[in-house]
Amino acid sequence: MACWLHDVGKISIPESILLKPGPLSATETKIMQEHPAIGEKICTPIKSFRSILPVIRHHHEKMDGSGYPDGLRGEAIPLKARILQVADIYDALTTDRPYRGALSHSEALETLFEETEKGWLDAGWC
Predict the structure, then answer these.
(1) Model pLDDT for residues 36-59, shown as the tens digit of each residue
(2) What is the C-alpha separation between 69 and 26, in angstroms, rounded?
(3) pLDDT tier at 126 (50, 70, 90 boundaries)?
(4) Omega before 69 cis (within 30°)?
(5) CB atoms within 10 A of CB 91
(6) Residue range 103-120, pLDDT digits in tens
(7) Is there a contact between 107 and 93 (Cβ–Cβ < 8 Å)?
(8) CB 89 within 8 Å of CB 80
(9) Concatenated DSSP letters of 61-86
(10) Which residues are catalytic?
(11) Quick one: which of 123, 103, 101 has its CA closest to 113?
(12) What pTM did the predictor assign?
């Protein structure tokens, strides 16, 4: 369920930001970074979703603490969120986006390994 719903908060993000063909401004980036917390808020009333709320909220945290929305680091990031993050990044890299074409499998893996070396991803899942 968390895999299907992790980006539900994007429903509140203006299409002008979601579909922007170029880099986001600082203001647009801040708005985009609100989607995990918004997604958690949307799903909170549903009792059967309680166990996936941390995954929805924390799928953009980074192992070095530079992620969002809470700046969690390392083991403080729920394991399921760390696993989903790798799959989510791979999917984003290998899918056409308004701002760039899809990368190949090998290019996406190279990016994942680079992000792991930077301390952003859990090395156990890349």
Answers:
(1) 999 999 999 999 999 999 999 999
(2) 15
(3) low
(4) yes
(5) 11
(6) 999 999 999 999 999 999
(7) yes
(8) no
(9) --TTS--SSS---GGGS-HHHHHHHH
(10) 10
(11) 123
(12) 0.91
